Amino acid sequence: MEPRPEPPRRLAYRFDLRQPGRVHVSLETPSPAAGAEMLDLPSQWAEARDLQRSIENLKITGSEVSLEPTSRLARFTLKAKPGTLVRVDYDLVQDWTGPLRASERHRVLIGPELVEFNGDTGLVAPKMETTAAVQVSFDFVNLPARHVLVTSFGTDTHQTVNGPWGEVANALFVAGELSTRQIPLPGGPVLLATAGHWSFSDQELALKLRAILAAEREFWRTSGSSWYAVVLAPYGTGTTGGGGSAFTHAFSLFLAPSEHIGPETESLVAHEAFHAWNPANLGTVADTQRLAWFVEGFTTFYQDVLLERGHLIDQEMYVRRLNVILRDLFGSPTSMGTPGLEVRSPLDDEETRYRAPYLRGAVIALWLNGEIVRQSGGRWSLDDLMRGLLAEHGEALTADRIYATAGRFVRPATVAAFRSMVDDGTAQIQLPEGSVGPCLSMHSKQAWSYVLGVPASQLTTRAILHDVDREGPAFRDGVRDGQMLLGWSLWRGDADHEVALEIRELGSSAVRTITYLPRGRLRMVPQAEVSPECAQGLRGGEVGGAGC
Length: 548
Ligand SMILES: [Zn+2]
Fold this sequence. Notes:
This protein is of the alpha+beta class. It folds into four domains: 9-162, Immunoglobulin-like (Sandwich); 179-274, Neutral Protease Domain 2 (Neutral Protease, domain 2); 292-446 and 523-541, Neutral Protease, domain 2 (Orthogonal Bundle), CATH 1.10.390; 452-517, Roll (Pdz3 Domain). Helix content is 26%, strand content 28%. It is built from twelve helices and 25 strands. It has a six-stranded mixed beta sheet with strand order 4-7-2-1-11-13. β18 and β19 form a beta hairpin. α3 packs across α4 (263-274). The longest helix is centred in the middle third of the chain and has 30 residues, at 346-375. The model is unreliable at 337-347 and 537-548 (pLDDT under 50). The structure holds zinc ion.
């Protein structure tokens, strides 16, 4: 006989927004059957740490209950009489001040006009595996008069979820002065919610989103989920660029208030939207970190491919953006793509470690697509591998499943090469000289390596600059240790795009902007070109896919 599956764990969360500046949360759940279990406070999400600082007035009530600290700051041992109900109360607060900057977008945001958090940043919960079955209800009470609620599960003030805990831990919760509109799409509408004022209209943004999401649904040939929301909110002044995060049935986007919807923003949107399938609909992922080369890398490959197929960017822009990735990977002065080259500084290396799976994965995807197209005589492409994974989404998503699926399209030796590129993070990815799939060919060219000259980790803090590279491009143009960085504008990895750092000297109120090209040395790197037979625009697009 099959063992009976465990009944889902029941949790009831109630969010009270009566008090400005805090959300009072209460959780009711049956006491642990064994009498004791771990209770976890939020601790880290993305690169944000010490998230437990957002939890105040933690209190537990119930029969024979106690809460004991453990060696981990954000973890307690909860004891209670078995077979009773336990109630956990706490206040969720914002643990930072000042205008919203990129460095705070991964923390709990509780402002008068916008409250935004997610399962990992805002929910206190018993320690559970992401695959554990749960039955969760959410109730939102005392929302300020003009506030609108948008979460991963809808817009009602009472919501329920039946599924794996991971869907709740990865859920988005937003309440605020939002303007909302439905974007009609094949496969069901998407809700767009925007906070703040923008240089573009909601209508303009809705049309762009519609085109991008339609291209993605067409690629996957499904809508992914029946409910889907996109939330856009502005950074405070002093920040440029944008950042996105994908959640259960939703993604959230932060942009500088002055930002317009250009190729950068479109690419960001295409990236976050692609996560609705990779990995959300391809099977549960046990260790997202280890699979980042696929989850982030293959998504990075497809984000611009799909923009190009959906005619949101042209071939020229597609190739330009691909070449930025290639230069960033192969021109890197670290060991990311070229073994044996020196690492410039430990801080640059931290940034490199973060970016490596995005870049390496994207270039592995480019290589693998080329191999599939070549070996199948143009019948198949990487698209078919991706859809093959979707067709078997009931299985866990693992590297072995991806290799096995690849084995249906390419020779065993190619699968072995694929596997070794993934396993050895410093192995050179051997892009062939010449064709890498329809319409694209690869040539070695001299290009500037991307060197910021300021440890990239300092761009996400409001710290005083230190360890400015004395031989680097920033120093050459006047950036010094001890200056305060107020804002910045840059295209990460693009050595041809000017960096602007907004600087204030300590003891002075004058703010000045230092601009420079983030260039290290000239290196030989593979660069893509549109093949001559396609440059005429035979079929308009599909440079990254099977057909041309
Ligand atoms: Zn991503």
